[in-house]
Design brief:
The chain has eleven helices and eight strands. The protein is an alpha/beta fold and about 300 residues long.
Length: about 300
């Protein structure tokens, strides 16, 4: 198992960008401290090339990011002030997701400590997302003939609106998003399958709905690989999630996804996605549980 990680994910960044990005430093540190992984399993991706990025994003958008010419309105839409480091961060994240997907195809599973930038569209960014790493990686696998059919399983509490828009009408990529009905983004795009969840949904109904849906999708789509966005903003402790899933329930979600995919011999590329609990330890522990579940089921 390989884990994409690089200091550019978090450091050095302006002070107003540090939370919740600090989790990307703490996750590998905790996994190493607990002996779940060894340092050799971590790797630093190189930046994605412009050619790779342009397989998914419009040239005009890429040039604005590259040249730091975003308008004030575009920066407000993203939620961050533009900076070369933020752009570089997302370029590296995108390559990290490509790398862990390639590793998963050969070894079963791969993790990106960051990733899941699912609010980025071809021609603009939203919701703290500049480039869509799942979109870029999926297009890379298809163009390189590494996969013929891809299933995006987005279990972040926010709909993967950018990913849905990128693959509208593309029969090679099936987008599945299970998200808060009354949460950001307030204008939803149309995924191949959207399951909007009511505010306050608890662990039992959440898991039941997932367990009824994902096996059917596996049988229907027959993917060569699954891109799994394992956001932990479904937690009851999350400041913005509006759901009531317990930490144990979040772990059960991951165990179910990994067990199902492993049973069907389907590789899995995992990105962390969102998490905004007040206590950073709640976020980091939940994300680390995702790694532990994947390791337990797929093996190291």
């Amino acid at each position: 198992m390989k884990i994409a990680y690089h200091d550019i994910y978090t450091h050095p960044l302006p002070a107003d960008h540090r939370f919740p990005m600090v989790k990307y430093e703490l996750i590998p540190a905790q996994l190493l401290r607990e002996g779940v992984i060894v340092a050799e399993q971590l790797f630093a991706p190189l930046p994605a090339t412009a050619e790779t990025i342009l397989s998914t994003h419009d040239l005009s958008w890429w040039e604005k990011l590259r040249d730091q010419t975003l308008s004030d309105k575009e920066q407000r839409h993203i939620g961050f002030r533009q900076s070369p480091l933020l752009t570089q961060r997302e370029i590296v994240i995108a390559q990290g997701t490509i790398d862990i997907a390639l590793h998963a195809l050969d070894h079963g599973i791969g993790f990106n400590v960051a990733g899941g930038t699912h609010h980025a569209f071809a021609d603009h960014g939203e919701g703290f997302c500049l480039l869509n790493d799942f979109g870029i990686a999926a297009n890379y696998l298809l163009q390189q003939k590494k996969a013929k059919k891809i299933l995006v399983t987005d279990l972040d509490v926010h709909q993967g609106n950018g990913t849905a828009a990128l693959f509208t009408g593309n029969e090679k990529v099936f987008t599945f998003s299970m998200h808060g009905a009354h949460n950001y983004p307030f204008h939803k795009e149309t995924s191949d399958l959207d399951i909007p969840l009511p505010d306050g949904m608890t662990t039992g109904p959440y898991l039941q709905l997932l367990e009824e849906t994902l096996p059917r999708l596996i049988d229907q789509v027959k993917p060569d690989i699954v891109f799994y966005l394992s956001g932990v903003d479904i937690l009851e402790t999350d400041r913005f999630g509006k759901l009531k899933v317990t930490p144990a329930g979040c772990l059960q979600r991951d165990e179910f996804v990994f067990s199902l995919l492993y049973k069907h011999s389907i590789p899995c590329a995992v990105a962390m996605g969102g998490g905004y609990s007040t206590r950073i330890s709640d976020i980091v522990n939940a994300h680390c549980n995702t790694f532990k579940a994947g390791l337990d089921i797929y093996g190291s």
